[in-house]
Amino acid sequence: MLTELRIRNFAIIDSVTLPLERGLNVLSGETGAGKSIIVGALGLLLGERASADLVRPGAERATVEGVFDLSGRPALVALVDERGIDTEGETLVLKREIAASGRGRAWVNGTPVTATILAEIGRSLVNLHGQHEAQTLLDDESQRQILDAYADATNAARDVASEYASLAAIRRRIEEITKRRADAERRADYLRHVAREISDAQLVPGEDVTLEDDARVLENADELRTLAQAVSQALSDDEDGALARLASVHRALGQISRIDASASKMQELYDSGFYALDELARAASDYASSVELDPERLAGVRARRELIFRLSKKYGGTLADVITTGAAAQAELDLVDSAEFDVAQLRKQEGEASDRLRAAAARLTALRKRAATAIGKAVSAELPQLGMDSGRFTVALTPRAENSPQGAEDVEFRVALNVGYDPRPLARVASGGELARVMLALKTVLAAVDHIPTLVFDEVDAGIGGRVGLQVGDTMRRVAEQHQVFAISHLPQIAARAHHHIVVAKGAREGVTTADISVLSANDRVTEIARMLGGDPESKASRAHAKELLQAAGS
Question: Under a CB-based contact definition with an 8 Å cutoff, are residues 114 and 121 in contact?
Answer without folding.
Answer: no
